[in-house]
Amino acid sequence: LQTTEEPVEEPAEEMIIEEVVSATAASFKSLESEAFHLERIPPKKLTDAEITLKFDYHFMVNGRPIEVKDRKNPMIYVDIFDYINFDLKQAKGMLDLKLNGNRAKYTDEIRTGDVIEINWR
């Protein structure tokens, strides 16, 4: 006995492509409609005081802890004189500037945690 198999019809390539395109389009429409449900929040207008950014620094100056809030980033050694009571107008010799135990220059960058020593010699 011979059996004849009936040919199984494979979907045409065009039909497969059409189904994929249709499914993809449906996914995009779903995403698109979800996106339109998101609220747009307008940006807040900031005042000048809110725009001013300050950095918080902590130093040890002549053995005392000093907290400095300043707009400068980075701060340099000479900036510390704005925050300490050290009279530069009455010279008592030469200034001895140290930063973390080493000789310092006015233009050396200072960072939180630095140990600053300022003395007359």
Give an overview of the whole structure.
The protein is an alpha+beta fold and 121 residues long. The protein is built from two helices and seven strands; from the N terminus they run ααβββββββ. The longest helix has 24 residues, at 13-36. The chain starts with 12 loop residues before the first helix and ends with a strand.
Describe how the helices and strands are arranged:
Elements: H1 13-36, H2 48-51, E1 55-61, E2 64-70, E3 75-76, E4 95-99, E5 102-103, E6 109-110, E7 115-120
Parallel strand pairs: 1-7
Antiparallel strand pairs: 1-2, 3-6, 4-5, 4-7
Keywords:
about 120 residues; alpha+beta; elongated
Summary, kept brief:
With 121 residues, the protein is α+β, with helices and mostly antiparallel strands.
Secondary structure class reads: alpha+beta
The strand line-up of the biggest sheet is 2-1-7-4-5
Topology order in helix (H) and strand (E) letters: HHEEEEEEE
Helix content: 10-25%
Radius of gyration: 36 Å
Average per-residue pLDDT, rounded, comes to 80
Number of strands: 7
Query: Which outline best applies?
Result: elongated
Spans where pLDDT lies below 50 across 5 or more residues: none
